Amino acid sequence: MKLGKLRSLNSISWVRKSIIRTKWHIYTKFWGMDIARSASFSMKTHFDKTYPKGVHIGERSYVAFDVAILAHDMTRGLYLHTRIGDDCFIGARSIILPGITIGSGSIVGSGSVVTKDVPPHSIVAGNPAKVIRSDIEVGPFGRFTNAEETKMRLVASGAFD
Fold it and tell me: Which Pfam families match (predicted)?
């Protein structure tokens, strides 16, 4: 395959998966972070390396690019455990402050600053992040259960030509 003929980054997704798997090994084995094997994250996610044992990411959760997950606060001398539950989605450029727990099945909107715990099955957004919807139903990686139906409708309508 010539580089000029690359139609989609999905055709080389195995490269990304290999890099992420290597980073997962470094984060969990060398730094001591608690990141579930089924969790996924962007290559540009920023996990706190000052207190790496305080970073906990649940099963089938996804952390997007430029997200900062903090487990320490240097100014107050705090070293806290920051937890993201199972089946969560953390949107791009969000900041999760030290000691926060994001409940399972929750979504954090892009650019949010999470200063308080997020209840399970909620959507939060903003700065500071506030609950904008509760009792949501998501599947793996915080994806809405009807997301595949929506995609198929768009494909059928020709939106992805």
Answer: Hexapep_2
